[in-house]
Amino acid sequence: MTARTRRVLPEGRRFLRRRKRDVLRLAAWSLLESAHTFLGGYGVARALDDGFLAGRTSTGLLWLGVAALGTVLGGFAVRGVFAGLAGLVEPLRDGLVRRAVSQAIDGAVADPARAESAAGAAAVSRLTHQTEIARDSFAGLVLTARSFVFTALGALLGMAALEPALTLVVLPPLLLGLGLFLATLGPMAAAQRAFLDTDEALSDRVGAVGAGLRDVVACGGERRVAADVGRLVDAEARLSRRLARWAAVRTLALGAAGRLPVVALLLATPWLLRGGVTAGALLGAVTYLVQALLPALDALMTAFGTAGTRLLVVLERFTAAPAPRGPGAPAPTGARAPVLLRRVGPAAELRGVSFAYGPGARPVLDGLDLVVEPGEHLAVVGPSGIGKSTLTALLAGQLAPTAGTVAVAGVPALLPQRAYVFTGTVLDNLRYLSPRATPAEVRRAVDALGLAPLVRRLGGPDAVIDPGRLSQGERQRLALGRAYLAPAPLLLLDEATCHLDPETEEHAERALADRPGALLVVAHRIPSAVRADRVLVLDGDRAQCAPHRELLARSDLYRDLVGLWRPDAA
After folding, report:
1. CA 373, 376, 377, 379: dihedral to nearest 10 degrees?
2. Are the CB atoms for 236 and 202 separated by under 8 Å?
3. Kind and range of the H or E element at 377?
């Protein structure tokens, strides 16, 4: 038993203790299923011995009617079982959803830049998907485990009532098959866990590649990225084959448990007949095995071999201790190194920073030196694919430099082009990066960014937002309000205003520049650069950083960019 499994079991026991009444209700309905199983085989045995073989047809038909009555009881029991099942399954699903949301929010508070990225949205999607896996798997396991336990109870009691020797013949091979099956659960859970870990790593890597595809292609990193993703695909394929091998072993165990009891009963038939066991008792035992016990055992092994291992692995993720976050916390294995965080000094500082997407690829940034002073408003311009988004990812800690150092005073906040808005109130969305913001601070942000008309149109601060009904511009304006409230000493806007009209964009940038802290804007319109204190022009191997007027005098690329926006300006 692994450490992660040991965390799951105590929580499972606490959950069942809290739902004791529902467990007892489910057990009470299941007793009727035991009665159905008991009457099925016992009625057939008595109908043959006391009725048809004894020449009393009416007695035989009466006992067959008793067996049929057991079938009616079984149908009535199934109806009650499903009603009682909801009392266990739905609270589990609700609890896991609450835990998934709590984990996502905690991660967003600890790492706002990741929360604004596609990887953060993928993590939330992954958790909610695994919640549904847990719900469906748990429901299936409860049904099959309960059915097997009470069906086995009814069948074994029925065989003991007919003739105790029948139980002695059937029970040993049944236990042998069960033991072989139980021995496969641990290795199969480990293989399932490794497969799910690899699948999640592959999803994360594909999402990261998709987000930076433009830079990957521009910098010739296709081979390295393809090889990196290919290794994860190959690992997932190997783990799929391992799962298939253990599934074959499980099938062997199922065959042993499901067929050996029948074979043992047939081989022992002469001995049983010599010992006085009647033909009716033998037929009753076969009925118990073929119609009740073996189908229940088949369902149990199938459920525990598939849904059981999936449920265990998924629950381990919900009960796992959160990874340490923030300054000084170790990065997870395989993760990119975070930026260096400093308490004092410039808002951000890059020294000799280079970054390439592959060993043989041309660097996107090469030997870049940059200092962003506290309170400074810096704009970044350059041709498409030149590395502007890569620079913001380096400052946010999403990428690690190939060479050089990146230092940031505190934890920055990154707003990407695609604004993240979740289903919740307007106020919750605005306070997403600053949960402790006071009403006065929220009103100040709304007034500074001119969001009051938008908030009123959405129904007020307490109105619940449906993200699918918002335009891209409305999403970006809410994200800008969130950024204004964020305590981050450095705001990174990676074309975060591209869906706004020029007047709204200017108003938002001036408001964000006036808040405490530095502002770095990846400009998609040249007026953003004109408004900035300084402009960083990325131009292949060279980079120039100076105020707007100074760059007009000495940078050909900058003059070209300005001329494209307004031909008479250059």
Report:
1. -20
2. yes
3. strand 377-381
